[in-house]
Amino acid sequence: MTVHRSGTNIPFTLPGRPRRSLMAAAGTLLAVLSLLFTLPGAAGASDIPPRGSAYLGMGVIAHDGQGGLPPADRAAQTEGVDVSSHQGSVDWSALWNSGVKWAYVKATEGTYYKNPYFSQQYTGSYTIGMIRGAYHFATPDTASGTAQADYFADNGGGWSKDGKTLPGALDIEWNPYGDACYGKSQSGMVTWIRDFLNRYKARTGRDAVIYTATSWWTQCTGNYSGFAANTPLWIARYNTTPGTLPAGWDFHTMWQYTSSGPIVGDHDKFNGAHDRVVALANG
């Protein structure tokens, strides 16, 4: 047998039973390749989570990391929690007794998903005494901002002036199902968000809260500042301080500071005493 390598003919004689040796070598190579492509971290369809499984802050640790927790004695902060179907049926009594006084519950995603635990979580938090609201996980590549605002308002994202219901929140962050910015240009993303906010206000009379991370906002909107005047900011940063805020906002209203709460869910701090939480609920 002759092996051709770099234009040179090199005589090479296989040892006994050449066909069986080649087959064995090929089998070994295939086994090694199979192992390599199934190691953790290898990219592939199996790495993409199922639609509907996204939640607040899903991409924060992966993109921004997680540092230390904030000091326990920060003045005028009110503890909160956010939950989704990942938490299942929540023990609201335990959370209330631990000092949690407000909550956000995932209601919808895109125009295709409703949280099956929404009733237990949304009603349960209210019954225990918390001020609570609903949030929508945005997927700007699947439907318009207007359509998603309607879907949210129709499926748990409404608002009523009862002193216990926070305005709906738009969770706009890294895309867990594909391109970080959902295939949109920065101007296209700004337009999508504006359409959602305008439609939500037309449906409910309230300005929705924006939940985001500064790094995503900078990457995917060009650090757009035009929503800050009317839209409360819920900033995601897992560290000792909220850090630099997106352009236009001089302060944050809420801060998601950890993804590993002491009892359940992601934990948050409202930037003010409990009466300020009530004020946001009342509009």
TrEMBL record:
Keywords: Antimicrobial, Bacteriolytic enzyme, Disulfide bond, Glycosidase, Hydrolase, Secreted. Its main location: secreted. This enzyme has both lysozyme (acetylmuramidase) and diacetylmuramidase activities. Its EC number is 3.2.1.17. The lineage of its organism: Bacteria, Bacillati, Actinomycetota, Actinomycetes, Kitasatosporales. It is found in: Secreted. Gene3D superfamilies: Glycosidases (3.20.20.80). Belongs to the glycosyl hydrolase 25 family. GO terms for molecular function: lysozyme activity. This is Lysozyme. One of its GO terms (cellular component) is extracellular region. CDD domains: GH25_CH-type (cd06412). InterPro entries: GH, Glyco_hydro_25, Glyco_hydro_25_AS, Glyco_hydro_fam25_subgr, TAT_signal. SMART domains: Glyco_25 (SM00641). It is an enzyme of class 3 (hydrolase). Coiled coil: none annotated.
